[in-house]
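Hey team,

Filing this mostly as a record. A colleague (T.K.) asked me to run one chain through the structure pipeline before their review meeting, and I want the input and output archived in the tracker in case anyone asks later how it was produced. No errors, nothing strange. Just documentation.

Input sequence:
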Amino acid sequence: MRYLYSLIATCLLGVGPHVSANDARVDICVYGATPAGIAASLAAAKSGKNVAIVEPTARIGGLITSGLSHTDFHSFESLSGSFLNFANRVREFYAKKYGEDSQQVEDCFRGTFAEPKVNLLVFETVLGEYSNITLFKQHALRSVAAREIDGVKTINAISCVTSGGLPVEIQASMFIDATYEGDLLAMAGVPYRVGREGRDEYGESLAPATADSQLQAYNFRFCMTKDPDNRVEPTAPKGYRREDFLGVLDALASGKIVSVFGYPKDCVFKGQTPPLPNGKYDINDVSQSLVRLSLPGQNGKWPDGTAADRQQIFNEHLRDNAGLLYFLQNDASVPERFKQEARQWGWCKDEFTDTKHLPPQLYVREARRMVGQYVFAQRDSEHAVDGDWRDARATLHRDAIAMSDYGNNCHGTDHVGPRFGGKHTGDFYNPVPPYHVPYGVLVPKAVDNLLVACAISSTHIGFCALRLEPTWMSLGQAAGHAAAQAIQRGVAVQVINVATLQRVLWNDFSATIYVSDVLPGHRDFAAVQWWGALGGLHRLAPMPKKPGERGAKIHGQYYQATPGHEVGLDLPLTEELRQRWEALLPRGVTVPVNAQTRGDWIRTAFASAS
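Output structure:
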């Protein structure tokens, strides 16, 4: 009732586009134009709400437009909803510009690999298609206005300041924090964690014995090329010191470094392959190498830091990552074969033209993590266990609002030994089956009109599975639709009808459970997703001998569909399965009597439930 009163008051004030040249009053305010924020804005706009999407920097799209161009996922069957639509639009761009049979279309990998400038163009285009979305760039959060009754807060407005120092207030009925850092949730007083939980707190085998403040390391995702017509020669970054990089010479002499650029190991800079369209490469940290780009321990002040703190960390990472390249390309002490190879590479002339061809954002892999209604932990992405049964599928969440298929992955949280030749600690990779993400990870405990799409409620280990752009886009899409539903029903975000939200998501082609043979666009997609959410797709296949087993490799980290995750709509319905499925039917749903196949049974039950 408290939330309903605030909603009525807001409506009486008038909800709509800008009410003045500077301030705004909207239904939903999304802070952070990351991929998650863009997905949230689009979902809310589709639901008929007026949306303000507020970005503190000059560039939208987060890391997808700032160098992370090889998107992390394992199988195409895991892609759905807002990210799948985005990827399809990227592919359409290349097909229209270069032709269906072009090398660019092949290299874009169904739209999941793209040049940063193309990703930016696609995001800008899709946002521009909605007249009820207003974009505010270079508006940095300064304060949050909220009221509190009986320990529950309602946010009334946020105050921002433009790059020119102009104050702007944005009032809304609902707010979504889509920043990587969780800046809005922190300013609103929502509890959060920074660092790692101890092993016993959530029973996580991958966690350290005791809790600490260590964060997953950051680095830049450079966009580079060997094309001489598009190559810009790197220069020494500000603050470059030759002596900082002399240690790399021992690594080069060890025989363990085969090349400066390579994939996936035995190199200094990981140039993700296949290349991006037009001969560009997404450059990343090389896991378990003698030479790393990621710098654990140097990002500790980022989550709670001031703008000045973050700028200093940004500068230090840039000085290190770009300085290492400059050293390898130019220093007389570098062996000639390494130097000549390194000098073939450079920045892209047509990328990041406003920032001297360098990414405007640092790869912030982890910052704050909200402590919300549900804390996603290691067990949530591992195989389901039911008595003696070990399932091919992951732990069931009947209130799932997203799914993903990437394992818990950490690039390290600390470093022992010298900068070059030392060793990261705290890194791991844990293969898991595709898993579902429950609604509670988006929801604070005691702020009734805020949802969180990036700095979600999870442990460090759990977050290391969820921290992927396709997953964040699915979470943003769910947050946008949930916020719209809360307004429509006049309820707090904590008590919306998740079953209704799930149906909206399925109709928006977003999957909440992985089904390898019934994909978005299939006539039975919603029906199968519904049945999966009720547990009907568990116990169809046992856990493989190797946990997290994937299909045949396509390339690198990309695979064919995960085995044991098909529904088999045309398979005959056995009597044993019929009885088990009937026991799962919700009250009021008619039992399918004459169904002979799995598909017939699911379609009939879903039609009755609808």
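Quick notes for T.K.: Confidence is low (pLDDT under 50) at residues 1-21. The longest helix spans residues 307-330.
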